[in-house]
Each structure stands twice: as C-alpha cells, then as structure tokens.
Design brief:
single chain; 442 residues; 19 helices; 0% strand; antiporter activity
Amino acid sequence: MNSALDREYGFWSLFRFALPTIIMMIFMSLYTIVDGIFVSRFVGSSALSAVNIVYPLVSVVIGLGVMLATGGSAVVARKLGEGDEETACRDLTLLVLTGAALGTLFSLLGLAFSAPMSRLLGASDALLNYCTDYLRILLLFAPASILQLLFQSFFVTAGRPGLGLGLTVCSGLTNAVLDYAFIVPLDMGITGAALATAAGYCVTALAGMGFFALRGKGLRFRRPRWESRMLLYACGNGSSEMVTNLSNAVITFLFNQLMLSLLGEDGVAAITIVLYAQFLLTALYMGFSMGVAPVISFNYGAANHARLQRVFRCCLGFIALSSALVFGASLGLAELVVAVFSPAGTAVHAIALDGFYKFAPAFLFAGLNLFASALFTALSDGLVSAVISFARTFGFLLLALLLLPGVLGVDGVWIAVPFAELACWALSIGFLAAKRNKYHYV
C-alpha cells in the first residue's frame, strides 16, 4: 500500500497534502509569466504579442503532456490502490517513454516548419521573426516539457509531492535568473526568453528521470510491456485535460484575431496580460485539484466510500472558500498585476486594466469547474470530465466570442470568459448531482 494515500484526511490534512502541488502550480504559472514580464519590459509589446500568437501550438504540446500525466497518474494510482505495484511501475515507464516520443516528434516539426506554422497562427511580417525564434526553441525542447508535466504528476502519485514542489521552485528560479541574464545583459531578446523557459523544463525532466530510475522501492521505473489498451485508456481518461489545452489553443487564436481587428497589436498585448493573470489566479484551483486527485483515485480503487465522501466534502469547502478569496484578490490587485507588464500611462496598460475588471467575475466560478473535471478524471470517467472541460474552455466560450463582440464590441471580448464559466458552473453542478450514486462521493 502507498502510505501517503492510504490514510484518513480532514480539511486541513488534505490541504497540507495538496499544498505542495498548489505551490508547484503557482510557481509554474509564475515562471511562465516571467517570460512575458521580461519580454514586455525589455524587448517590447510587439514581442509580447508574438509570444501569445505562437502560444496555441505550445498549448498543444502542453495538452499532450497533461493528458498523459493526469490520465496516466489516475491509472497508476488506482493500480497502487488495488495492490498491483508491479503493473503500476511498468505502466509508469511506458507512459514516460510515450511522452518522450511525442515530444521528439514536435521537436522535428519545429525545426522544419516554425516559420510556416507562425504564419498560420496569424503572425504578421512585423512579428514573424519574433514568432519563429520563440516557437522553434520551445518546440526543440518539447520532450523536456512533456516529461516535466509527467513527473510533476507522478511525484504526487509516488507520495512525494514535496519533491515535485522543490523541483518546480528550482525550475522557476532557473527560468527567472536566465531570463534576466539572457535578455538584459546579454541582449538575446525573445530567443533568450525561450532558452530560459527551456532550461526550466530540463531541471524537472532530468531530476524525474534520475528519481524514478534510481529509486529502490515503491513507484519506479521497471522494464515496460507494450500495453496499447492502457495507453488508450490513459489518453481517453486524460482527454478532458487535452481538450482543455486544445480549446485554449483555438480560443487564444480567436482572442488574438478579435483584438487585432478591434484594437491592433496593443489589444493583443493587453489580452495577453489578462490571460497571464488568469493562468496565475486559477493555478490555486488547478494545483488543489491535481493534488487531491491521487487520493480520490486511490480510495475509489480501494472501494473506500466513507473516505471518498469525506475527501469530497473537504474539496467542496476548499473550492467555495478559495473562489471568494481569489475573486477579491483579482479586484484588489488588478492595477498592480497590469503594471508589472506595462507601465501606467501606456495604451496597453489602460486597455488591460479596463478589461481585467470586466474579466474578474470568472474567478468566482472557475474553481468548481476545474475541480469537477479533475474529479471525474480521478474516478476514471474521462467522458464526463471531457464534456465539462470542452463546455468550459471551448463550447460556451466559443459561443460567447462569436456573439458578444458583435453586440458589445471590445466589452464582449472581456466578458466572454465570465459568461462561459457561469454556464459551465451550472453544468458541473448538474453532473455532480447526477453521478453521486454511481461513484459514492456523497
């Protein structure tokens, strides 16, 4: 048995268990955002726009990694709960090898087609070089990006969330220090920002390989067996997270095109700032949901309904409390957050600050939506999880972006996300009520 998962949890003990993953996700958000800060401040708003223009393709890579990580960790945690450690270890190894192979494919695509892909994503002549340089380097290090995501999930499943946290902090510090070194004194521009991000990926990827290769007991690398059914099941189970990232790619593209048409490059830079803020503020929900997922999977696999119900109640309490706190923080810190990227008095600052206040209500509803999706992934119900994620990040949001800007102009762009989160909040509550008897979390 995995002693870190096979125990009773109350509100605070569950929070403490998830805390390393929460902090890890916040640090991941921060070191992703660090690129934007340095690029905006020391390279220019056009370069910041370029970062967001190529993000949809980067999001696809992240989506594949998150799909394997969340779907695979649920499979591995369930097998640990069933007492089948040998199969869990073999599945871990096969999932890691699969992630490395997918990353290598993207590396080859990036080397050959960065410029054409940048054009397809909407890069103008003025932004093409920025886009190509940034995209080529990030895709070159796609294997490290995917492995980083896998190991962050499997550290939690192995009962070592603190290790994942420590490595994430190291990765973030590496990225931040190298961002400064490459961009400011070395004047490497957007290329320096991409190299700094890639270096951060490598810290966790290399450490994870060493940890699971050298570990003498517990979850570790063992000689894998080809299990196509397990891989397909893991991918299907984690498909909601893949859907989320693919949807983010499409939606980011639409945001960019709408802002280009309404406000030009300053509009793209402004929406980039607000989306960075969203990424940071929702990291709390994402980290908590990822942190508690192995506990849910373990107790579901062990058929311990009483424990599962206690964990579920604690989760709902945390989501309700944190949603109110995050919404309040978003209103109170809006001007500070925007000013970090763009100084007061600039056109980008004015556009982003106005949009941030209209965007903020989304944080009231996002927490439950993210938890509901993660819950059903942990329960191996990938279909329901995918429906929630698809509705939240694509279906409702696409509808809002197609309808609201035509009626409200720029304001319609800003309130599209709150509209989608509210609609998905109602859907999530419906699924939680409908599935309670099947999974016994109530």
